[in-house]
Structure formats: C-alpha cells, structure tokens
Amino acid sequence: MAAEMEPPPLGNAGETDFRELEDGEDLFVSTVTTLEYPEPSSPEPASLPAEDISINSNGPKQKDVSFDDDPEDLFAEATEEVSLDSPEREPILSDGPSPAITPVTPTTMLTPRMDLGAADMFERSLDEIEEDNNGDTFDIHIAVSDPEKVGDGMNAYMGYKVTTKTSMTIFNKNETTVRRRFSDFLGLHSKLASKYLHIGYIVPPAPEKSIVGMTKVKVGKEDLSSAEFVEKRRSALERYLMRTVKHPVLLKDPDVIMFLESSELPRAVSTQALSGAGILRMVNKAADAVNKMTIKMNESDAWFEEKHQQFENLDLQLRKLHASVESLVCHRKELSVNTASFAKSAAMLGNSEDHTALSRALSQLAEVEEKIDRLHQDQAYADFYLFSELLGDYVRLITAVKSVFDQRMKTWSKWQDTQLLLQKKRESEAKLQFANKPDKLQQAKDEIKEVRSTLEGKVEQGEKDFELISKTIRKEVSRFEKERVKDFKAVIIKYLESLVQTQQQLIKYWEAFLPEAKAIA
Amino acid sequence: MTSTLDDSEKEKARSVSVDLNNDASLLIDIPDALCERDKVKFTVHTKTTLSCFQKLDFSVPRQHEDFIWLHDTLVETEDYAGLIIPPAPPKPDFESPREKMHKLGEGEATMTKEEYSKMKQELEAEYLAVFKKTVQVHEVFLQRLSSHPILSKDRNFQIFLEYDQDLSVRRKNAKETFGSFFKNMVKSADEVIISGIKEVDDFFEQEKTFLLDYSSKIKDSTAKAEKMTRSHKNVADDYIHISATLSSLSVDDNTALKKHLEKFADLFEKLRKVEGRVASDEELKLTELLRYYMRDIQAAKDLLYRRARALADYENSNKALDKARLKSKDMAQAEEHQQQCLQKFDKLSESGKRELTSFKGRRVVAFRKNLIEMAELEIKHAKNNMALLQGCIELLKSN
C-alpha cells in the first residue's frame, strides 16, 4: 500500500517526495498524505536572503486595541503555572467525567465514561474509518496566522486566525476561517484527551502555557522577544492542529470539526487553574501519580514491555538532544549579536584608518560581517523552528504516548480489581450456602446473586476494555512510529538544506570581499 | 608539555608581522618551549655571523619575565627614545582552557564516554593553540628587534640572546618594579601633555590625531573580535554534543530512521571539526592581528609621548634661557641646556618620522596579508562544509 505522495500545495525549493517504505498493512497509511512538517505559513527563512524574518504577514500586528475587562485570565494562568511542577501540562484525566464540559458545549459523540456503549462505538468507528478512508482521501491543510492582540493590560489576549482548506466531505465548506484564542486550543485538547486518552489514543498535546511570554505581550511590550514569543506560539499552534487532524479518529471528532468551523466557540473556562475543573485536574494528577507507583502489572505481552522501555529511552535521548539544540540556538544567536557588534567596530576602525585602501577594505569587512550576522540570525531561526521545535514536540508527544501506556495499566488494574471483588462476592455467596439462617437466607442469596452477576458482567467488560485498549495502542504506536520516521526524515533534510544555504551565502560574501582585500596597496 | 613547531606551522604562525628574520647575519627563533604549570620556558635559538657574539649557533632557556626585562630596559634607554620599541609579549595565559577543562570535569557524568573524550580533545587543542600563540608572540618580539638596524645592536639584547645562565640576577628587583610603575603613572600625565602641546610639525600633528583615535578603535575591535570568535567556538562545541546524542539515538532506533540518524550524527561530527577550524583561523588571522597591532600602536604612541616630553623640555629650557638672560645669570649654562634639548628634540623628531612611516607601511602590509588569508580560509571552509552537507543530503534522499 505504499503510495506515491504529491508535494504539498505550498511548495518550497528543494522539497522531497516521500515514499512510504514501511509495510503497508497499517490502516492509517493511506489516509495520511504528505503534509510536510513543519508547515509554517511564513516563508522559510533559509531561502530568504538576509530578510528580516520577524516582520512577515503573520507577525503580530502593531496596532493596540483598547482593553477589555476579564479578570479571570490573570490569575488563571499564573496559578496554573506555579502550582504544577510536572512537565506534563495536558490534563490526563482518569475515567471520571470530563471537567471540560460547560453547559453550552454539546459533546454529541459521547460523554467520556467507561460506558459499556463507548467501547463498542469506538470499535465500530475504527471499522468505519477503514471504509471511509479508502473513499475520502486525506486532504486538509490548516494555517494559523494573523496574531492580533485583543483587549488591553493583563486581561488582554492574543487572537489567531485559523484557516482550514480541505476537500473532505466531513467539513461543511472547502475553506473556513475562524478566530480562536489560546485557551480555545487548550480547551479542544482537554476535550479530546478526556474522550480518547483512556481508551488508548495518542492525543497530540497542546502547546504549553507561558506566563512570562504572555505577560510581556499583555503588558504591551512590543519588542523583539515578545514578537518572537508570539511567532513561536503561532507556529506551535499550527503544528498542533495539523497533528491532531492527521489522526484519522480525531479528525472526525465533532469537537475538532466545531473548532475548525464554528464561528463562535464557548469559552473554555475549565482550562484555567482556579476553576473547579482545574482543581479537579490537579487532584486527578496527584492521584494518578500515586496509583502509578502502586500498580504492579503482570505484563503478559512482551511487546508492551519492550515498547515501554523503548519509549523511556527515546524520551531520555530526545530530551538530551533538545537541550543541546537549544544551547546551539542560544550560541548561534550570541554569535550573530557578537558579529554585528564586531561589524560596527570594524566600520569605526575603517573610518579611523588613514591609509585609504586599507580604510576601504576595513569598511568592506564591516559590511561583510554585517551580512554574515544576518546569516547567523537566519540560521538560528532554522535551528530553532526546524530542529529544536521538532524535538520539543516529540518530547511532549512521547509524554502522551507514555500516558496511554499508563491508561492501559489502569484499565488492567480496574479489571483486576473488579475480578477480585467478584471473587470475594463468590466466596460470600458460597459461605451463605452453608449458613444456618434459613429465613434471611433467600433474600441474602438473591442479593448476592444479583451483585455477583453484575460483577461478572463488569469483569467481562473489563477484559474486553483491556483487550481493546491494547489493540488500539498497538495500532497507535505503529502509526506514531511511522509519523515519527516521516517527520524526522523530512526535517533532517530541510535542516541540512538550511545549513547549505548559509554556507552558499558565506562563500558568496567572502568571495566578494577577497578582491577588496587584495586591492590594498 | 613540549611543543616543537615545524617550519610550515611557523610560517603560518608568524603572520602578524612581516619581513622578519630575513637577515642571515642574525637569525632568531624559538624552536621549542616547555610548559610547567604556570611557567613557560622558551628555548631561544640564535644563528649568527656577527663577530660581537662568542658563538655562531647557540640556544638559551628564557622565561617570560626575561622578555619583559629586555623590553623595559630598551624603553628606558635614552638613546632609543626616538624609536618605536616593539611591544612586549603578553604573559602566557592558560586561564581560559584551564577553566573549561575544570567545567568539563564537573560535567563528565552527564556525557557519554565518546562525547567526553571529544570535548577533552577539543580542549587540549585549545590549550595547544594558546601555547603556540604565546610562543609565536615571544618569537616575533625578538625578531622585530633583530630586524631593527639600531635595536639589534643593543648590548642587553645580545646578553639576552647569549648569557647562558639565569638572567634573574639582572632582572627587576622590587625597587625597580616600583620605578616602572611610577613611570607608567607619569605616562598618563603625558597624555595630557601631548594633547596640550602645540604641535609645530604637520606630520606629527596628523600622526597624533590618527594614533589617539585609532588606538581606542582598535582596542574595541580586538575585544569584539575576541567575543565573536569565542561564540564561534561555542557553536562548534554544541555540534559535538548534538552528534553524540544523535549517535545514541541511532543506536537505539530500530525503525527506518536508524540510518538517517547515523549519517546525521556522522555529519555533525565532521561539521564541528570544520567549524572549529573556522573559529581558530578567525582567531589567528583577525583577532591576533588586531591584538598585535593594538599593542604596536601603543608603542607608537609611546614614541609620541617621549617626543612631546622632549618638546616640553625644550620649551621649558627656552623659558629658562630667557629668564637667565633677563637676570644675566647662568646664561652659558642655560644656553647649553637649551641646545641639548633642541638637539634631543630634533633627533627624536627625525627618527620618529622615519619610524612612524615605516610602521604604517608594516601595518598595511600585515593587514593585507591577514585579511586575504582569512577570506581565503573562510571560502575554503565554507566549500568544505557545503560538500559535506550536500553529500549527506544526497545519501539521505537516495535512501
């Protein structure tokens, strides 16, 4: 089932065609066309010679809108940030109800409980998807752009334009544009997580909150660092949505569709820390952490054992690599700053030099170094957006993968607990048989029998759930790995091409300078 | 550690000044040096045909302090007041690589064995580079002297080259150290004098303006160039860590990504070597060049100070003579004194003009040579990088 992929509509120079080389039996292969990672709406920095990248059509607009009052925002993000010390930011909910339900939100699919109905529905939906995808090819492109500050002061927020272009029939229109704010994205993720995580789907994590970054923006600091922050966030939001819709099950989720199409979205207040939902989330997280420590699963399936270990290793290595690349970005930015500073100094030296030809050469040197400074800036940009952010995304994704494994453990644990309970009831039932209280006996016997048979049903369901989540995880992991291979391959090549660009420019600049140096007489 | 520099390396190293060591009658070089903790012992080797020396070919061990003694002695010699005394070589400074080595040791636990050994290699190379630079700069100092028609004949210089025992007996003792400190203080007062003095000669007026301004600019450029090359080195070091982690990832990976990661890791290892060389070439051709001429400009300024002082002396002697004439007392004395001051001043001006003109020529030639070499090296390294990158891209795309 290896399909030849077409290059995506927004073609850039030097793109590769991707071929699915892996075994093609996976359901999801054919559904996923080549949507390159990343797909920023802004043009690639490496192919723009010495242009100022931060000023592009998707940069933050410079206008200042008047403030509106919304006191909740300030405290929400602040408290959430401070109290949670785990790196996981997405709410990993246990099988309790989703706290993200505000009265207005119609979750038409289902409420996220261990309903007997739910599992069946998903099983069915998996089959549906097989059919569906063979008919309706995956063709969707989402762009997040035009960040605009809404409101003023600490109650301000950034609004983003979300444009969906698609030919798929599950959407109402071929092209939709809506405006969303950051908490809307978090709200979407929260809903998806509560619906899908506990049954084994790897739900892509939403970008992280950041008090420092947002505060600067709110306060109206229109400097380079807040512009950079907004661009970083915009790009992250775009990647988040693309990853979410690449998932064949999530793509069809009504919350996702509503997010992309609906002009008005109810405020996702539950993403705030001080809301009841937020507190519930924190409590759940703590409970989860404790549970994880106490559950000792008898792993009968070597595959899971192996995969679990693999992901642990991968996590460690990716974090390390991410840290090194972040250091690289930092040093390259430093290099750029120091080069610019040297360029200025060389220009002054050239002015001061009284030997004419040498003076000219020094001025030329200053110009070359100035151009090189911009090259370094562009390269740092590529280092970050291509390499560093990819790694950051995958570090967060692996957290989601690990949580899915945990969910399986919990499912198993629940099943086992139910089984134990059943055992106890059976023992009680047996004891009753031999008890010598005939009058109360029948009533008690009936009661216990009822409880026992309900439990038997539950145990059966528990086993089914466990098997289902195991099956889903296998599929999900396989899909994840394929995506990972594709993403990394694509990014590695793109990144190398950015490095090539830089070197090409360097050659150009120094070759232009050489005759100037030789001209010193 | 000992280091013997072969001829080609010396040719490269000896780049901040040109036209040195060409006169076969007196050839000086530092063929090797020994580094013991903080002290560096240089072996100064002389080959000569001059009769003032006892032997034709001889070597002596010298320490940094001996060079400083020689320099200061020359500065204090009245007869050389009209010459630009080549700047003293700076003290060998291994602080930076030593500090880095220390930090590396602390961070050893967080790295793989390979990573650690690569970082260690890099640091050892840096250490070696500092070592080579200090040898070069001491060598250039001596060669400047030997190439100078007047300074090469200096008796102390000859003692320095020849005296086969410890020079420390002749070196500064504490009292003399204070003396030189005082002299430095007086010198800063001289700056005020210089700016205040009414210059009679256009040439010197121009030179003064130029040197004062250029001196501060080149100091600034040196510092900025240093920062720039250091950042470059940091980037190269980051590549080491990235390469190491990519390697580990590749080893653990069992998907189609394995080969990709392996090649990517390999590429970064190669790239970092090139980047390291870019950084060190920039350091040598640009930063060292600026650093050297920063010191040389200071030596030229010193010449101007001495001349300005002589001018001040002359003017004072004129005033004294006028006074003496008025009082009709000690006139002969005052006249003689005035004559001496005038003579001294004229001598300084004449020799100073010569020295400053040849200094400019020397400076322009050195800048030209180094800038050309730097540009050529940058091009070479960038082409190298490109070849590596394109090669890797080809390989990855064909997979």
UniProtKB/TrEMBL annotation, chain A:
<keyword id="KW-0446">Lipid-binding</keyword>
<keyword id="KW-0813">Transport</keyword>
<dbReference type="Pfam" id="PF00787">
    <property type="entry name" value="PX"/>
</dbReference>
<keyword id="KW-0653">Protein transport</keyword>
<dbReference type="GO" id="GO:0034498">
    <property type="term" value="P:early endosome to Golgi transport"/>
</dbReference>
<dbReference type="GO" id="GO:0031901">
    <property type="term" value="C:early endosome membrane"/>
</dbReference>
<keyword id="KW-0472">Membrane</keyword>
<keyword id="KW-0597">Phosphoprotein</keyword>
<dbReference type="InterPro" id="IPR005329">
    <property type="entry name" value="Sorting_nexin_N"/>
</dbReference>
<protein>
    <recommendedName>
        <fullName>Sorting nexin-2</fullName>
    </recommendedName>
</protein>
<feature type="compositionally biased region" description="Acidic residues">
    <location>
        <begin position="67"/>
        <end position="83"/>
    </location>
</feature>
<feature type="compositionally biased region" description="Pro residues">
    <location>
        <begin position="1"/>
        <end position="10"/>
    </location>
</feature>
<feature type="compositionally biased region" description="Low complexity">
    <location>
        <begin position="35"/>
        <end position="51"/>
    </location>
</feature>
<feature type="region of interest" description="Disordered">
    <location>
        <begin position="1"/>
        <end position="109"/>
    </location>
</feature>
<keyword id="KW-0966">Cell projection</keyword>
<dbReference type="Pfam" id="PF03700">
    <property type="entry name" value="Sorting_nexin"/>
</dbReference>
<dbReference type="GO" id="GO:0030027">
    <property type="term" value="C:lamellipodium"/>
</dbReference>
<dbReference type="InterPro" id="IPR027267">
    <property type="entry name" value="AH/BAR_dom_sf"/>
</dbReference>
<dbReference type="InterPro" id="IPR001683">
    <property type="entry name" value="PX_dom"/>
</dbReference>
<dbReference type="GO" id="GO:0005829">
    <property type="term" value="C:cytosol"/>
</dbReference>
<dbReference type="GO" id="GO:0035091">
    <property type="term" value="F:phosphatidylinositol binding"/>
</dbReference>
<dbReference type="InterPro" id="IPR036871">
    <property type="entry name" value="PX_dom_sf"/>
</dbReference>
Automatic annotation (TrEMBL), chain B:
<dbReference type="InterPro" id="IPR015404">
    <property type="entry name" value="Vps5_C"/>
</dbReference>
<dbReference type="GO" id="GO:0034452">
    <property type="term" value="F:dynactin binding"/>
</dbReference>
<dbReference type="GO" id="GO:0042147">
    <property type="term" value="P:retrograde transport, endosome to Golgi"/>
</dbReference>
<dbReference type="InterPro" id="IPR014637">
    <property type="entry name" value="SNX5/SNX6/SNX32"/>
</dbReference>
<keyword id="KW-0813">Transport</keyword>
<dbReference type="InterPro" id="IPR001683">
    <property type="entry name" value="PX_dom"/>
</dbReference>
<comment type="function">
    <text>Involved in several stages of intracellular trafficking.</text>
</comment>
<dbReference type="Pfam" id="PF09325">
    <property type="entry name" value="Vps5"/>
</dbReference>
<feature type="domain" description="PX">
    <location>
        <begin position="1"/>
        <end position="167"/>
    </location>
</feature>
<keyword id="KW-0653">Protein transport</keyword>
<dbReference type="InterPro" id="IPR036871">
    <property type="entry name" value="PX_dom_sf"/>
</dbReference>
<dbReference type="GO" id="GO:0015031">
    <property type="term" value="P:protein transport"/>
</dbReference>
<dbReference type="GO" id="GO:0035091">
    <property type="term" value="F:phosphatidylinositol binding"/>
</dbReference>
<dbReference type="GO" id="GO:0005768">
    <property type="term" value="C:endosome"/>
</dbReference>
<dbReference type="GO" id="GO:0006907">
    <property type="term" value="P:pinocytosis"/>
</dbReference>
<dbReference type="GO" id="GO:0005829">
    <property type="term" value="C:cytosol"/>
</dbReference>
<comment type="similarity">
    <text>Belongs to the sorting nexin family.</text>
</comment>
<dbReference type="InterPro" id="IPR027267">
    <property type="entry name" value="AH/BAR_dom_sf"/>
</dbReference>
<dbReference type="Pfam" id="PF00787">
    <property type="entry name" value="PX"/>
</dbReference>
<protein>
    <recommendedName>
        <fullName>Sorting nexin</fullName>
    </recommendedName>
</protein>
